[in-house]
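ARCHIVE CARD
SHELF: 3
SLOT: left
DATA:
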Amino acid sequence: MAQDQKPGQQSTVVTLKAVAQHLGLTPGTVSAVLNDSPSSRSIPPETKKRIHAAAKELNYRPNFFARTLRNKRTYTIGVIVEEIGDTYGSAIISGIEEYLQPKDYFFLTVVHRHKIELLNRYSQLLSERGVEGVVTVDTTVHEEPSLPTVAVAGHKQVKGVTNIVLDHHRAAFLALSHLKDLSHTRIALMKGNPLSSDANDRFSAICEVAQELGIAIDPELIVQIDIEYATPQLGYPFAKQLLARKKPFTALFAYNDISAIGAIRAFQEHGLRVPQDISVMGFDDIPGAAFHMPSLTTVRQPLVRMGQVAAQTLVDRIEGKQEYPAEIAIEPDLVVRESTGPAPKS
């Protein structure tokens, strides 16, 4: 409540001019400091401190519409995501929000579910609504965009697009080295749905690293995920497929954590113990991975951090603070829990 405000009285909107009068400065000087404009560089640090302190004391809030008209900007970005309810997309969006909120940026989110007609339509609608740039999540960009664009899990080199990518070779090395150290030589693999941006690159990295480590890959121990579910049902039927082939294996490297959790259920229904009979390796380290029974060994993909990096990169590009990099690689970590153990001797 303002100092002179009485109970039940509506708050008085404090204007930029009022802050300037309070300090005995010109509105232009106060505006330059509070908006961090280039002209504020010549203003003494002590004056800047006084302005920020007065704005806080008077509870000054900038007029968004005046700011937009003055700078000819909307301070809004678009986020194009394949699925908003899954743990992958929601974690990245959380990271985007964490970075943008203190910057007073807004974001509009659209969900395309890998439907090309929706993707094209939503891209146009976001542009018409004045977004200044776009972050895409698990969405392949095929042609040069009209706006600055950052793609999380983007793998195509497209002019104007910065790709935020996980180092999949390192991720595969961490996972397969762990299984090899546990004496697993017959490792089953789940390939991701081809619609997922990471699917092909991740599987290619696994094949390359397996060859480097001397691990043979049996085609009959590979299953292809061809459905789209944001639940453990993603992995359950394909683990059943592996068991139906009656080809022995001692470990499964699943495409992601939710498919790994679904696979564990399928194995347990078949009377197999995890990890005593079959070890299971996930990917992502979703929040529930640590609390599943058994807790899931996985390759941690820092999804929230990837969202933060994507938002920061886009804002820096919009504000002209840097030349855009074509790619930013994020390092994974191995998280060892209960779902992996030594290969059974038999």
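SLOT: right
DATA:
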Amino acid sequence: MALTDAYIVAARRTALGRVGGLHARRRVDDLTAPVIRAALADCKINPALVDGIILGNATEVSNPARLISLTAGLPETASAITIDRQCASGLDAIVQACRMVGAGEAEVMLAGGAEALSTAPWRVARPKNLHQMPRFIGLEPLTGDAAVEPNMFEASELLAREGRINRGELDQVAMRSHLAALAARDAKRFIGEIVPMRAIPEEARDEMVRDVSAEDFERQTPFSGGGGLLTAANTSAQADGAAMVIVVSPRVWTELGEPRALRLVASTTIGVAPDREAFGAIAAVQRLIGLHNDLDVTKMAAIETSEASAAQIIQFARHFGIDPAAINIGGGAIARGHPLAASGAVLVVRLFSTLVRAFAHGGGAAPRGALGLAALSAMGGLGSAALLEAT
């Protein structure tokens, strides 16, 4: 069955905060409900019209989408589902909402991702017998005695070495991310994108973005000893944050006056070897090109990816023949932080700001038909990508 169009008419997020920092005491519902209310107000949609919510989350228990739905004041009849594809969950949630609307199963859907790592439940492994102590386990999907998957930094280290990338190149790209994020903040490009939880400046800006110098990078110690390339400065840190969008049917879009919006053109997800998860975004975009032969990554109006390290930006740019500076023009995860399952949703919110909100605020028109690409790698050896068009 052919799908009809689905339109993203509003997109909002919180400021991203370091774990134990800005959002230290906020539960996932406290973090996400204000974002939903702001997005609904942006496009003047009555909460009673919402058919459902699809949420990406990798750390909570039960079905946090339902809790968030009720906290945000959505109707009790609204469906709610939580999906976990690790870092790709938020992007996949938005794609699924677009597919659901396109199939005629809903007319107004909320979708995105949220992670409150500061307040999320701890994960404790059950001991094998009563004489052993329980132990805390990490977030890697294959963590355990039989795990063969390296963590995301080890996968990025492999990516850097295979690409013969040196430490200086990694640090340069990481510094560019911070400087781009600072420039975007100073130019007030996040106004209308970030939802402050309180009326103080710290709530309206990403907590980890800071002014940096070459010396800041040079003094960092590599994770894997003296021969390592990756450091705390050229990799991304985990973060608390939420990002949500509103997806509507053509009928609702028309009733709203056909506002500027994003339309999902194509999407794909692909698996890669578990020890090569850092290659996931490249593999996903390559598959997207295979499905759409006329797709030219070099002609994208905006490209957003949530990188675990600068190595992913460099290799992505090399593979598709683009300038690394053209990726994440408002700064990437190295500067903002990486909110796990919310990361992919943040990418879509950023594309909305670049291609739609900038037009609305007179900050540079994105013509109708301009294309934006969101892509990222996910723990476990997965990659997801989505192509969106400004309407």
